[in-house]
Design goal:
It contains 18 helices and 22 strands. It is an alpha+beta fold. The strands form five sheets. A five-stranded antiparallel β-sheet has the order 2-1-5-4-3. Strands 7-6-10-9-8 form a five-stranded antiparallel β-sheet. Helix 15 packs across helix 17. 20% of the residues are buried.
Length: 619
Amino acid sequence: MPNIPFSQLLRQLPAGVATLEGPELRFGFVNEAMRALVGEDAEGQPIAQHPGQLPTALLDVLPQVYATGKPYTAKACLCTPQPAAKEDCRYFDLALEPYNDEQDEPAGLLLLAIDVSEQEAARQQAHELALVTRHLDARLRVLTETAPLITYTTDAQGRYTYASPQWYRFTGQPPSADLTAIWPLLIHPEDRLRALYEADTARRTGTGWNYEYRLRRFDGQYRWMLSRALPEVHPPDPPVYWHGALTEVHDQRELADALRRGEAELRFLADSIPELIWTATAEGFIDYYNRYTTDYSGLTKDELGPTGWVSLLHPSEQAEAARRWVQCIASGEAYEGEYRMRRLDGAYRWHIIRARQLADGAVLRWFGACTDVHDQNLLRQVLQTQYDELARAHHDLDTFVYAASHDLRQPALNLRGLFDELRRTATFTDPEQALLLGMVDGALTQFDNTLHDLAVTVQTQRAQQDPVEVLDLGLILEEVLLGLRPQAIQREAVLDVDVAEAPGLVYGRANLRSVAHNLVSNALKFAHPGRPPHIRLRSYHTPDGEPVFEVQDNGLGMELADSSNPVFQLFVRQHSHIEGTGVGLYLVQRIVRSHGGHVKVASTLGEGTTFSIYWTRPT
């Protein structure tokens, strides 16, 4: 094997090698790798005058190394002309080694340059990654330590290696506490074995976990927590760490339990109600029936299906009910109808079916009920039959009273004629002749007036069936006062009329005239003998908008000791010394009540009376 000269080996060495000879430190030997740094013509020139790409800081060190004889090493020195792009920068490890001559005197320096550009680039990149990692780690720590949850890390053996500060604030444990030992002891005894088993199984299988358990808080209360964790995976190696979080879900758990209890109570209540209760989706398909529905129909919930109540209806009513149901689903209107529903024994019973839509956020649901009104319908039919019979009997009675009063008036007229003829032709020696004749005459007059008032009462009752219309109250009163003009003139009465506030009234014409006539005629009849009558007629509206007709006089007045005073009873009179039959006020109250109104009376004996008629509100 041929011997290769040592100088040739040095020239082919990939590291730069050069000798700096003498105190001037002139380049002596320079191999090829060093020429790339100092230039091709560096040999024989002082390094201070021909440094090439060597850093200036190295030139300052050279004389000291030569003088002291101590080696010097510089790591990762930048040996690139400035300026240069980052990717063009070259880094070298530089070493200075003094050497002596044969007399052991300093002869020069050996300069070595090893290219470490790739290593330095990798080191800088690792440094930058470390900075980024630290920034991310700091950011992650801030996020985990400020979030409203507890974060933790555990290893494959179940040892807790990290817990966020929220853990210590929640549990009240000191930071020096052994997490691995204390953690299981803070879990509720009823949940401890299950929680430990879940975590241990997940670590053995290399999977995550998600379960709830109760954890003791610093005040001794156990709060429900949701524990979630995922393994840190680095294939193909098995997981070594699990990172997780504890979130307090106590309030949500309590609310969910309350909702479940409330739902169970509502279902129990719905099952206890003797009505067909059901709910439907926004599309109208029924998704719940209470127990009474299945008991009534004899069908299971599956047999009833999504349109169960429609299928139970009488065949002749199903199409109309279904069409109405579809319309309500489309429009959102409430559903209501009365239909016959088939019972388990095949009998059809009348039900009122109602359904309303409930909007809970974006969820729409229908709640419905079918109420059995079959017995009420039968009772209503019986009552209607009885009412019709009573109406016929009442009509027959009115006809009889009217006919009797009409037929009896003729004998009364005959008695009146015979009495007048007897008084004209016959003479009596009785000293009380005039008194007896006056009494007989008064009795005949009273008898005739009573028969007349009975006929008027029947006629008024029949007039109550007359159609109502919008009446001008002023014109009606003008007609009434015109008919009573002779009595008003005779008594020198003053009449004030004010109907501007409520001039119109929806009522029957004959009824309104009868009410006004009776009240005004009574005011004239029962005038105080010591002063002329002053009658005020006015109309107004109550705060609720109801029209009121008021008649006020300054006459004799009445005694109204309590609410049971029989002012409006038939044939009852308070002033018997004045001619009358006691029918007028009875007619007034009967007419007003028949239309849903009422009469109020306020009176002071010797001062006057006020009648207030409250009519039904116009529609």
